[in-house]
Design goal:
The protein is an alpha/beta fold. It has a domain of about 170 residues: NAD(P)-binding Rossmann-like Domain (Rossmann fold, 3-Layer(aba) Sandwich), CATH 3.40.50.720. Helices cover about 50% and strands about 15% of the residues. The strands form 3 sheets. A 6-stranded parallel beta sheet has the order 3-2-1-4-5-6, sandwiched between helices. Strands 7, 8, 9 and 10 form a 4-stranded antiparallel beta sheet that branches. The radius of gyration is 21 Å and the shape is globular. Keywords: Cobalt, Glycosidase, Hydrolase, Iron, Manganese, Metal-binding, NAD, Nickel. Its cofactor is NAD(+). GO terms for molecular function: hydrolase activity, hydrolyzing O-glycosyl compounds; metal ion binding; oxidoreductase activity, acting on the CH-OH group of donors, NAD or NADP as acceptor. Belongs to the glycosyl hydrolase 4 family. Pfam families: Glyco_hydro_4 (PF02056), Glyco_hydro_4C (PF11975).
């Protein structure tokens, strides 16, 4: 059986144990000879590594596990690199969310000004990762990227390293599909969706359950309830308050615009005033995560190290891990499985620019994605996407040219920002907050 060396870049992420479990339960079909956790934060990675070692002991005790901060050690002869970097960690995410809210603008980590700030932090670390892979990894390497904001990362890496073997993906559509499956009381894997848009900016046009079109049934449900299942035992109902609000808020879009089912992130662009009104500028989603998942996992590790009886298996799960492994297996074995991924448009959506990085269904082969042709899209959706695509292009221009003006254009053009003057205040505050991370803007 062919075996693979796989690296998780951002090994200190609290999502890492779930990804590792998803990998190892597939060991009879996707066998690893070495698993590497690679991070620039050794202390954090070592803490998460406590749980990862537990996963390995349970599911594949013979597997070689390496934890390193050395890119040469990590990438040498690697077949797959799963990238899930969070540059600046949650302290910077908090700034991404709170600075815009100070000016009455949506504060979110991947959408609006927060997403642009995060993008400027992430572009060059991703380019650096690609360069390490080009230098040390096997020539046939694949980077499967989860690092956010994925739309900006995809656009920047395609521009700066066009020959890189990188596939940008996002688990948000899959999480919505999970909710759809709970609403329909079926298995998520029995659903097939059609979709178009940019990452965190798109719409489901068709949903089929074992070949049967259930789109209208879902539209009627979502227009009344959002993406919230009515099953009282649903795991979704136990999510954080901000996610409950996000899933429920889809009803306001779906009941107004009847063509398609929205990605939940469309709330930040179409319901920005409502989102700001319901946000606490002093306690954002970043605080929820730091006080919730982050605290739970690192407290559990501390207790485990202290010899206490701790159930580490509760940190093993998640659709996040399942999806990235499914995509990697399709790349590894030329399975031609159909997933939503980010690709250069090149006519996939006929009336969008050819160089837009769109999110559409594609068949994943060992040579990369083969996108499904979507055809033309209606004026309303085309207009929204072209505006957001221009924002993303401008922020990549700003990073490459070190241009303050291009950054200001991007902030001003964002649908979440009401005016140039507000955009400038947010940008100037973001420059101060991101001094250690952004390229210098002139």
């Amino acid at each position: 059986m062919k075996t693979f060396k796989l690296v998780i870049a951002g090994g200190g992420s609290t999502y890492t144990p779930g990804i590792v479990k998803s990998l190892l339960v597939q060991k009879d079909r996707f066998k690893l000879n070495e698993l590497v956790l690679y991070d620039n934060n050794a202390e954090r990675q070592e803490a998460v590594g406590v749980i990862v070692r537990h996963v390995v002991e349970m599911f594949d005790p013979e597997l070689k596990l390496t934890l390193t901060t050395d890119p040469e050690v990590a990438m040498t002869d690697a077949d797959f690199i799963f990238a899930q970097m969070r540059v600046g960690l949650y302290a910077m995410r908090e700034q991404d969310e709170k600075i815009p809210l100070k000016y009455g603008v949506v504060g979110q980590e991947t959408c609006g000004p927060g997403g642009l700030a995060y993008g400027l932090r992430t572009i060059y670390p991703m380019v650096e990762l690609i360069d390490y892979c080009e230098k040390y990894a096997k020539p046939t390497y694949w980077i499967v990227n989860y690092s956010n904001p994925a739309a900006i990362v995809a656009k920047a890496t395609f521009r700066l390293r066009p020959k890189a073997r990188i596939l940008n993906i996002c688990d948000m559509p899959v999480a919505i599909e999970r909710n759809m499956a709970e609403i329909l009381e079926c298995d998520r894997h029995d659903l097939e969706v059609d979709y178009f848009g940019l990452n965190h900016f798109g719409w489901f046009t068709k949903v089929r359950l074992n070949g049967e079109d259930v789109t209208e049934k879902l539209k009627s449900y979502v227009a009344e309830h959002g993406y919230m299942p009515q099953n009282a035992k649903s795991d979704v109902l136990h999510s954080d308050p901000s996610w409950l609000h996000t899933y429920e808020n889809a009803k306001n879009i779906c009941s107004a615009f009847h063509d398609y089912l929205p990605n939940t992130y469309m709330q930040y662009y179409l319901l920005g005033d409502e989102v700001v009104k319901s946000s606490d500028p002093n306690h954002t989603r970043a605080n929820e995560v730091m006080e919730g998942r982050e605290k739970r996992i690192f407290d559990a590790v501390a207790d485990y190290r202290a010899g206490k009886d701790v159930d580490l298996t509760k940190f093993f799960g998640g659709v996040h891990g399942e999806f990235i492994v499914d995509v990697a297996m399709s790349l590894a074995f030329d399975l031609r499985k159909r997933y939503l991924v980010m690709v250069e448009n090149n006519g996939a959506v006929e009336n969008l620019p050819s160089d837009a990085m769109v999110e559409v269904p594609a068949y994943i082969t060992d040579r990369g994605p083969e996108p499904v042709r979507v055809g033309e899209i209606p004026t309303f959706y085309k207009g929204l996407i072209e505006q957001q695509e221009a924002v993303e292009k401008l922020i990549v221009d700003a990073a490459v040219e070190h241009s303050y003006e291009k950054a200001l254009m991007a902030f001003t053009l964002s649908k979440t920002v009401p005016s140039l003057l507000v955009a400038k205040k947010i940008l100037d505050d973001m420059i101060v907050a991101n001094k250690a991370y952004w390229p210098e803007l002139h």
